[in-house]
Amino acid sequence: MRTRLSDHVRERLSGFGMMAPSIAQCAVGAALAWTVAIHLLGHARPFFAPISVLICVGVGLGQRLRRVAELVVGVSVGVGVGDLLVAWIGSGAWQIALVVALAMTTAVLLNSGALFVAQAGSSAVLVAALLPTNGAGGWDRMADALTGGLIAVATVALLPASPFTIAAKHLSGVLDALSTVLERAAEAIEKRDVDLAAEALEEARTTQAAVEEFERAVETSKEITLISPLHWHRRGRLARYETAAVPVDLALRNARVLARRTLAALGETSPPPTSLAEAMREVSEAALLLQLELAAGREPMLARQALLAVAARERPERLGFSAHVIIAQLRSIAVDLLQATGMDHEAATATLTSLDAPHDEDAKN
């Protein structure tokens, strides 16, 4: 019980560590937006300005530059429709329903993005339910939204989270998951344990979320290096993570097939040989090496060498159908990881030809 509690606390603290820069950006940006809107723009209640900062920066991963554009236009649509209609029909329950419906319909016709549509609707509600309309109200609120959006970008640029920490953290999750699947499948083969194979398959089926989070992390990291002068000179380092994004996704997809076929192979009359488990562990260790080398900012040469060593292994003879499929998937995973190290597809495939090439005796048979 204590172990689970301590693990949970460490996980929460780790999550806070990742989100702390975004929290600081939100806090500082909201205060600056409020101050600028009051003292420079002369707006009495500019709450759209700090709200814009919170939406644009957020506390998670995303495309902030696109958020700024969607936010400002969404607020403009909502405020424009709200101000126009409320001036004619007044405020009330049915008026709110009509204003929200028209604002969101207009937003959908212009742009189907969820943030854009939601912001248009919420802005219309605020106008219809809370804010007195006057000649300049709509323009003031649009200016507040733009001010908040611009300050949000400025806080991300001047108080940036480390793009490499973000990318490395999420790549670590993906490669750890891949390594776990391969290790459990290897153990299942060694022990002829169907339950372990089933656990490996279940683990493999839950990995897609980690892949999607990594892809969003790479996009966020690219965005930070684009808008933050503090990281302009390090874009080349982030390029390694961009190179790895698609290949590691493919590697995990192949690992799911490998785990499923491992489970099937253990039920066949000719189960896979334990030598396959050794090859799986070598690929698993190469995945962890890739993770460490990228996090250290180095060219992943050790990971590449480990994968090339797998290519030199001879294929066991007289295998069952499922074992042949396992070898094919392991080969594909190795190709994917070699591409993640920076090799092109043709070179990676060529180096791994010997992994699944049949022996002469097999060819004769």
Automatic annotation (TrEMBL):
Superkingdom in the source lineage: Bacteria
Q: Which residues form the Integral membrane bound transporter domain?
A: 33-154
Q: Which UniProt keywords apply?
A: Membrane, Transmembrane, Transmembrane helix
- Topology in the lipid bilayer: Multi-pass membrane protein
Major localization class = membrane
Please give the start and end residues of each transmembrane region. 20-41, 47-64, 71-90, 96-118
Q: Where in the cell is it found?
A: Membrane
Name of the protein in its database record = Aromatic acid exporter family protein
